[in-house]
Amino acid sequence: MASSVNWMLQPQVDGDSGDAGITHGDLQCGNILLCAKSLDSVPAHELAQDMKEGIGISEPIKRLDRREDRWAPRYLAMAQPLAKYGEFGPSLIAKISDFGASFMSLDQVEEPVTPVALRAPELVLGLAFDQSIDIWSFGYLPSELVTGTMVFEVDSCGEKTPENDAQTNGVHIMEFTDRLGAPLEYLLQKWPRRERYYGKDGTQTRWSVEPGEDLAEKHPVCLLEDFILKERFPDIS
């Protein structure tokens, strides 16, 4: 299915958005919709939300200060996927959704809303970027689809401050190195903290940005191909 989704989305990434001069900026699995079969013949009760607490709805919502909130909903409805009604054969149709954070490529934004782990190198390094950030995210998606896990285990390091952002970027570059091999020298030259991790000859000297860890202890590397073979779902050959 991953290859089918990849093939179906490619015209949208390479064609429709690109021809229109639009950068999506938030291309991720959560923004890809797979079309379902016609539901006209499905009884309404099968599509109705399960109203059992803890299964279809949350526990009653309460304010932390226990005051009454007349405007809050009584509960939250939990996601109930329609996967069993999906068309996963040759007629599979996948569509990109949620263009709320998209922008015209000529109208450069300061920082797109791309999920941290899906950021292209130019975003991590604070360089100028264009529609190619969507291509990077698009190239990342098949790996996540066949493994069900994040390829780059990166999350924001605390509140958004310059120091925390720099630490997050350091973690991301270390993840690039573990999965894709040593970064290209011209990219490393753009990294303000390069000298903390690499010697003058380009040799990596530090493998962690976490305080308290043995910074000189080399971490095991699992390149992308090996990672996919190890983590893929059992039914994917």
Number of helices: 8
Number of domains: 1
Fraction in beta strands:
under 5%
CATH superfamily: Transferase(Phosphotransferase) domain 1
Mean pLDDT: 81
> N- to C-terminal separation?
12 Å
Helix and strand composition category: mainly alpha
Low-confidence stretches: none
* Count of strand segments: 4
N to C succession of SSEs: HEEHEEHHHHHH
Gross morphology? globular
| Estimated helix fraction | 25-40%
Architecture, CATH level 2?
Answer: Orthogonal Bundle
Most strands sheet: 2 strands, antiparallel
Q: Examine the coordinates and then state which fold CATH places here, giving the name of the CATH topology.
A: Transferase(Phosphotransferase), domain 1
CATH class: Mainly Alpha
Description:
The mean pLDDT is 81. α1 (2-20) runs antiparallel to α4 (132-147). The chain has one domain (2-38, 82-99, 112-231): Orthogonal Bundle (Transferase(Phosphotransferase), domain 1), CATH 1.10.510.10. By secondary structure, it is mostly helical. The protein has helices at residues 2-20, 44-47, 121-124, 132-147, 162-180, 185-188, 194-197, 224-231; strands at 22-23, 32-34, 94-96, 103-104. The protein contains 8 helices and 4 strands, in the order αββαββαααααα. It is 33% helix and 4% strand. The strands form 2 sheets. It has a two-stranded antiparallel sheet with strand order 1-4. A two-stranded antiparallel ribbon has the order 2-3. The protein is globular.
